[in-house]
Amino acid sequence: MSVALEASRVTTPHDRRTTTIGAIMIGLGLFIAVVFGLVVPSWAHSQLTFDPINTAVHAPWHLGALTVETRWTDTLLGLVAVALGVEVVLRHPRRAMSRFGATSILFLLALLLWASRTSGPATVNFVDLTAVLVGSSSLAMVLIYGSLSGVLCERAGVVNIAIEGQFIAGAFLGSMIESVTNNFWLATLAGALAGAFFGWILAFLALRYMSDQIIVGVVIVTLLAALSSYLNLQVLTPYPQFNLGNLAPNLAIPLLYKIPVLGPVLFNQTGFFYFAIVLIAVISFGLFRTRWGLRVRAVGEHPKAAESVGINVVATRYRNVIMGGAVAGIGGVSFMATQGQFQPGYTSGFGYIALAALIFGRWTPSGAVVASVLFGISSYLAGNLQGYSVPIPTEILGMFPYLITIAVVAGLIGRVRPPAADGVPYQRS
Amino acid sequence: MSTESITTAPRASWWRRLYTQSPTLLAGLAIALGIVVGAFVIIFTSPVVLRSWRHIFSSGGAILSALKITVDNVGAAYRAMFTGSVISPTLLWHSLTTGHGWTTTLTPLSETLTYATPLLIASIGVGIAFQTGIFNIGANGQAQMGGIGGAAVGSMIHVPMVIHLPLTLLAGILGGVLVGLVPGLLKAYTGAHEVIVTLMFNYVVAAFLIFSVLSTALQQPGQSNDISRTIDASAQLPPLFGVASGLRVSYGIFVAAAVIVFAWWFLERSSLGFEFRVTGQNPQAARASGISPRFIIIAVFCVSGGLAGLAGTVQMQSTTHYIDGGFLIGNAGIGFTAITVALLGRNKPVGIMWGALLFAALGVGGRAMQAATGIPLDLATIIQSFVVLLVATPVMITEIFRLRNVETQRIQLATQGWGS
Questions:
Q1: What is the dihedral of CA A422, A424, A427, B1, to 10 degrees?
Q2: Which chain A residues have a beta carbon less than 8 Å from that of B191?
Q3: Out of B30, B142, B150, B330, which could bridge B305 as a Cys pair, Cβ 3.0 to 4.6 Å?
Q4: Half-sphere exposure of B387 toward its Cβ, with a 13 Å CA cutoff?
């Protein structure tokens, strides 16, 4: 067996890709070590604090601030990244992508430390690590909903590029229903129904009339962007009571939420966050461990073969696209529930970033989650770094999530294989 | 259809010809349906109209008055749209009888042409990409970069008009090519799907636009706002009837006309255009006959991006003469409308011309409608989206209207899935 492994190790294109990933990791590591580390003057210090944000009233714990020397800490972080890269290049571990993810997190941490550097230990500028993680987690949650929606649709062979539109629909309707009924359950239901409806439209046009899925998806997004902007002016502006923008309450899990740092991030969140985690587990299990999942994957990979063993391809696709729409709709509600009042255009391309997370995660729920977390952190930092002393204009920083998305889609960090029948219309012969 | 032509009279009636000329008929029906849907959107969001329907069971005349209120409201909106984008009959009569006020009378038409000009150019770029099976959804970013390039050359170089004007147009084209080239290269060499990449570039360029108009090189001196320098008079596309006429329609329409002729020649007569179309219709056949798919992808993004960039700079040179942070942002954007125009015009230059005029009228009229009735301008985009959803699913229109003998042509991109 080891011989077979050895033989397969030499030639596959997968192998070359792993080497590329490793090389990129080494490059990133050197960049951290030199630019964020060695070049920094030795007087510079960075301070990390860990104060809980959302349990501030009765904070169960207080951790003292951690002050480090920026130069040597970042150099160390960079060297760890280099070591990980060298390991990937030499050993070609199966989980190379997760090591790449770790390197990206090291990069972001080093960037944060570097951005908050100040002279001497008595600093005003500091990084509240807990706040960063909590802020990133709510963005990551929205991306998780979006990319899980993508998993459901694309595993069945339909490209759902309308996720952004379903976000908008969910956020709009969710905000309205929540404001009227003051009930997040009903808002979630309404958002799910709205998303499912637009999923059905996509499925109807793509499956019944074989329209191009991408054109239809893009047009659905534009339609919803225009419709929500129209309704915002016609309904929400004159009647602000329909758009209160209440945030969903945090539901602290007893005892667990008291864990330092991790507690606020994982165990003191809104119901949407916990539901996302349940959804990850359900979809992973369903897709890879149940008969339903096997059928869905068969439909996405080889619809003709699936049909020949009695699976109804069109019905499976309808079902999955509608479910995917519902998940994205809930994602829209969760965005509203954590970011506040609906405004036209405030999802700012998150639906497309979720698609990129899906591609980065190789169409698996777990991969999509890891990618969503990475994208969530980088989106949060891009939006919040201007408070620090970063010599980069805000506009340029704002480009980063989109540039990373491009790099992912271009396969610059590893090519990926989509489900074979993804986006191909199915015609029963 | 073939049996039809044998059995009918030698020359079919104009009605029958219209009826069987599928593209025109389908587009017309799609537009009609879009306008009907727009009417329903107005009805369901106007409090006055909804209130009138609440009491229809209370008395016999209530239903009639509710109908009247509905028709009045929808009518007022669409009337404002028409008079704001084409011509107002009363003003025309006034001008014809008195010989005065021509500026006010012709302003709507002039505005429609002014908006149609860049839209037409960008749409032809998108259409050429569609004919090659490529979905260029980044026309807006490419046009913005064209505007940035045009504004830079137009305001920083000072040469006579004969050189300056073409040079500024060229800078716009180059800006568009630059932004279009990256997705093209990525698609050609890594297989990255152009839709995501061009979409993301729209966000990237929008951020770069703010950055550039705030930069010392481009920012209007003495200003702290996000506004660029004004380009020299020698780089401007002057108004067609002179500045004194008060009409904004400019010499840009000749640029648009040249683009139509170029696109026709390019697609129908040039060998590169032929290769584009072959690739779009059958990529395998194209590859088998020795056409390099990589070269075609890169070339089509250059052509498409270049035209979008030209559209952006023409917009800037003929209207504002400067760019600001809101240049082609949001409702002012032309990228999405260009896609709908290209689909509506079946990616053919002449079809696109009619589509651009129609959707420019819709946009300009939408503005007038918003001013007159308070109904948001977004209605125009809603109607456009419906129209293009219908145009993208022609079979549905034939089913709704129970049409027979109408040939439908499915629009399909060359690459499906993520193609990497």
A1: 160
A2: 411, 415
A3: B142
A4: 31
CA of A423 to nearest chain B CA: how many angstroms apart? 4
pLDDT tens for A114-155 read 877 776 554 456 778 888 888 899 999 999 999 999 999 999
End-to-end CA distance of chain B: 40
Residues 260-289 of B with CB under 8 A from A: none
Co-location of A347 and A248 in the same domain: yes
Picking from B41, B42, B44, B200 by the largest number of A CB atoms within 10 A of its own CB, the best residue to mutate is B200
Residues A356 and A246 in one domain: yes
Average pLDDT across chain A, whole number: 84
Of the candidates A64, A99, A125, which is a domain's last residue?
Answer: A125
Residue A121's pLDDT is 52
Longest dimension (CA), chain A: 74
- Do A137 and A121 share a structural domain? no
Q: Average pLDDT across each block of 10 residues of chain B; the chain has 420 residues. List them in order.
A: 46 60 78 93 87 78 86 93 91 89 90 95 95 91 96 94 95 96 89 84 91 89 88 92 86 95 94 91 87 92 97 94 89 86 88 93 93 91 90 82 68 56
Total number of domains in chain B: 1
Question: Does pLDDT of A6 surpass 60?
Answer: no
B392 vs A219: CB contact, 8 Å cut-off?
Answer: yes
Q: State the CATH number of the domain containing residue B278.
A: 1.10.3470
Q: B207–A398: do the CB atoms touch at under 8 Å?
A: yes
Task: Print the domain residue range for A236.
Answer: 132-409
Query: What ipTM goes with this model?
Result: 0.85
Residues of B in contact with A425 (CB under 8 A): 416
- Which chain A residues have a beta carbon less than 8 Å from that of B205? none
The candidate with the shortest Cα–Cα distance to A77, out of A23, A137, A29, A142, is A29
pLDDT reported for residue B369: 94
- Asked whether residue B121 is domain-assigned, the answer is yes
Q: Is A210 exposed, middle or buried (0-12, 13-18, 19+ CB in 10 A)?
A: middle
Chain B nearest CA to A178, separation (Å):
20
A125, A144, A163: which is the final residue of a domain? A125
Considering the domain architecture, whether residues A228 and A368 belong to the same structural domain is answered as yes
Are the beta carbons of B73 and B48 closer than 8 angstroms? yes
- Identify whether B325 is part of a domain: yes
Asked whether residue A418 is domain-assigned, the answer is no
Q: Which of B46, B137, B195 to mutate to test the interface with A (most CBs of A within 10 A)?
A: B195
Residues of A in contact with B137 (CB under 8 A): 218
Residue in the structure block whose two tokens are 């080891």: A2
Q: Are A118 and A45 in contact (CB under 8 A)?
A: yes
**How far separated are the first and last CA of chain A, in Å rounded?**
43
Residue B403 included in any domain: no
Residue B13 placed within a domain: no
Q: Is B191 helix (H, G, I), strand (E, B) or coil?
A: coil
Judged by CB atoms closer than 8 Å, whether chains meet at B417 and A423 is answered as yes
How would you classify the pairing of strands A127-128 and A44-49? parallel
Q: Across the strands, what pairs with B227?
A: B324
In a domain, A414, yes or no: no
Question: Residue holding tokens 């808002």?
Answer: A187
pTM for the complete prediction? 0.87
Same domain, A87 and A196: no
Question: How far, in Å, CA of A324 to CA of A317, rounded?
Answer: 10
